[in-house]
Write a structure and sequence with these properties.
Order of helices and strands: EEHHHHHHHH
Largest sheet: 2 strands, antiparallel
Shape: globular
Helix content: 40-55%
Distance between the termini: 37 Å
Strand content: 5-15%
CATH architecture of one domain: Orthogonal Bundle
Radius of gyration: 19 Å
CATH class of one domain: Mainly Alpha
Length: about 210
């Protein structure tokens, strides 16, 4: 059974919503069966196989978003891309805030139908490269990232660099996003690496992130 509600498929938002495409409420719940025996009342939780959970989530995602994005993109592919971007940043010692910024770029490209199964890893890597350049103005940051990308993303650094300007143009040459588009992704990315809050992440004044 899927969490996240039912009903008519929502229309795509007229403005970017960080919780629309990869809805944090969209998750699989265990199926619970209650047994009543003599002198005993208990519940049996039926755990789905991972492949069944993934299929169910992807089907629900397709019903909600299939009309608005490329048909080859699934929720599991989006979440796998995000995991790989986290791994790239960690191995290259880049900021998690850069990953959150890349998530915004990635989802905007998906909603613009610029991303499909064949180019998803290359364009996701280009999103992270642009995010690091916007968020971490240090040359060595991109050098380390470009060295890590082939191993984690399975695409060459040359291919990513070739797509960088195209992605920049598809983002309408705008790499700086409103805080309300960025913060939900930052909070989720931080939790995924075991950091409970922005305050813990910055280790001090978090005024900028909490505006």
């Amino acid at each position: 059974m899927l969490g996240g509600g039912t009903g008519n498929a929502p229309q795509p938002p007229t403005q970017y919503d960080p919780n629309y495409l990869d809805d944090p409420g969209l998750k699989a719940d265990s199926r619970r069966t209650t047994s009543n025996l003599v002198g005993f009342v208990g519940s049996i939780i039926q755990h789905n196989k991972p492949v069944d959970v993934r299929r169910e989530l992807n089907e629900h995602f397709r019903r909600r978003h299939g009309a608005f994005i490329d048909s080859s993109i699934t929720l599991s592919k989006i979440r796998n891309l995000k995991l790989r971007l986290i791994q790239c940043a960690q191995q290259a010692s880049n900021e998690i805030s850069s990953v959150a910024l890349a998530y915004v770029y990635l989802e905007k490209l998906i909603l613009a139908r610029r991303i499909h199964k064949g180019n998803r890893r290359c364009l996701a890597a280009a999103c992270l490269l642009l995010a690091v350049k916007a968020n971490e103005p240090h040359g060595e940051s991109t050098a380390q990232l470009l060295a890590v990308i082939p191993k984690v993303m399975g695409v060459t650094s040359a291919a990513v660099l070739e797509q960088e300007f195209t992605v920049f143009a598809d983002l309408q040459f705008s790499l700086y996003v409103p805080i309300h588009e960025f913060m939900p992704h930052l909070n989720r990315a931080l939790r995924s690496v075991g950091i409970s809050s922005v305050q813990e992440y910055v280790g001090g004044d978090s005024t900028f992130y909490l505006k």
